[in-house]
TrEMBL record:
This is Type-4 uracil-DNA glycosylase. It is an enzyme of class 3 (hydrolase). It comes from Paraburkholderia sartisoli. Belongs to the uracil-DNA glycosylase (UDG) superfamily. Type 4 (UDGa) family. The keyword Oxidoreductase does not apply.
């Protein structure tokens, strides 16, 4: 099986559900030539795989595994941990002056020494953190997981219910999809990837984190990035992307380009929980991962920072 086919298989893109007579939508991203080329290859394979499945009913899965996966996609489990970033609609920024003041106040309060901590001290600091109101309702802080010397760093929004309970990022259904996506690039959280969130404590009811909560937590992530020294960062979902890149731009406008956080190239993609519900966007996520891989290959060949 060709690499692109096995990768798509891992992503759950081939074979896939296809409504008779319909093809997955294909986005053109003028600003990412490399990603475009790679993604078009992937999309073509996915489409061909879907066609090859030869639908005999209006919706048909070509394998039991996919049938199970797509049953989940179509019917998210009741009471599932609904993350705030599922709302992919761009929100209006709060008034600049107010946001700037909140963020500045929080930054002033965060203490500069976080930037000097080693892994153990940083982890202990997060465990004991009471910098914002999120500490009141958390069960566990969720520090991060994976290879602390990884070239790849993935950054999500905030812990959900399962993560709060277990103290590890991305442990639910979205985490399984994330692991499959990583496997398609021969990456794994216990080997060569580091995974963290912008926010280390679960916002009650998975509400959107407030600007001051983000600002108070940011030194921890900054320190994690400076300790890992990744070659590429993948921002998972609108909230992570907007927080890292300090923008209110929509995720669709941020995808397909190489951004920067703390001197590290950043690629923006959809949140895996969103992908569980939006099958066509999996092809776009594959394009994003291809852009991340191309970016990583370039930076891995460059002299160390
Ligand atoms: N969503 C996130 O953004 N992070 C997690 O750790 C879990 C779900």
């Amino acid at each position: 099986m060709a690499f692109s086919e096995s990768a798509l298989e891992e992503l759950g893109l081939a074979p896939m559900w296809v409504r008779r007579g319909m093809r997955p939508s294909v986005e053109t991203t003028a600003s990412a030539d490399a990603a475009g080329a790679a993604s078009n290859a992937g999309k073509t394979s996915a489409i061909e795989a879907a066609d090859a499945a030869g639908a005999t009913s209006s919706l048909q899965a070509a394998s039991p595994r996919e049938a199970g996966m797509n049953a989940r996609i179509q019917q998210p489990p009741a009471g599932a941990d609904e993350p705030a970033w599922l709302d992919e609609v761009s929100v209006e920024p709060p008034a600049h002056t107010r946001t700037n003041r909140i963020v500045a106040d929080a930054r002033a309060d965060t203490g500069t020494d976080v930037a000097t901590l080693d892994w153990d001290a940083l982890s202990a600091r997060v465990t004991a953190c009471e910098r914002c109101r999120l500490c009141e309702k958390r069960t566990n802080t969720v520090f991060g997981v994976g290879d602390r010397n990884a070239d790849w760093m993935l950054i999500g929004e905030a812990p959900g219910e399962n993560e709060d309970r277990l103290g590890e990022p991305f442990v639910g259904q979205a985490g399984k999809l994330l692991d499959n996506m990583l496997r398609s690039l021969t990456l794994a959280r216990d080997t060569n990837v580091y995974i963290a969130n912008v926010i280390k404590c679960r916002p009650p009811g998975n509400r959107n984190p407030e600007p001051d909560e983000v600002a108070r937590c940011e030194p921890y992530l900054q320190r994690q990035v400076s300790l890992v020294k990744p070659k590429v960062i993948v921002a998972l979902g609108r909230f992570a992307a907007q927080s890292l890149l300090k923008t209110q731009a929509s995720i669709s406008s941020l995808r397909g380009r190489v951004h920067e956080y703390e001197g590290v190239p950043v690629i923006v993609t959809y949140h895996p929980a969103y992908l569980l519900r939006s099958l066509p966007d999996k092809a776009k996520a594959w394009a994003d991962l291809c852009l991340a891989r191309d970016t990583w290959q370039k930076t891995a060949g460059a002299p160390p920072r």
